Amino acid sequence: MKKILLLLITLSTLIFAESSAKVVYDLTTDNIKAFERKILKAIVANKAYYESKLKELEVTVVIHGGAYRYFTVDPSKTEYKTDKTLLADYANLKKRIKIMSDTYDVEFLMCGAGMPKHGLKAKDIVKYVKIIPNSTIGLIDRQNEGYAYIPVGDK
Question: What is the pTM of this model?
Answer without folding.
Answer: 0.87
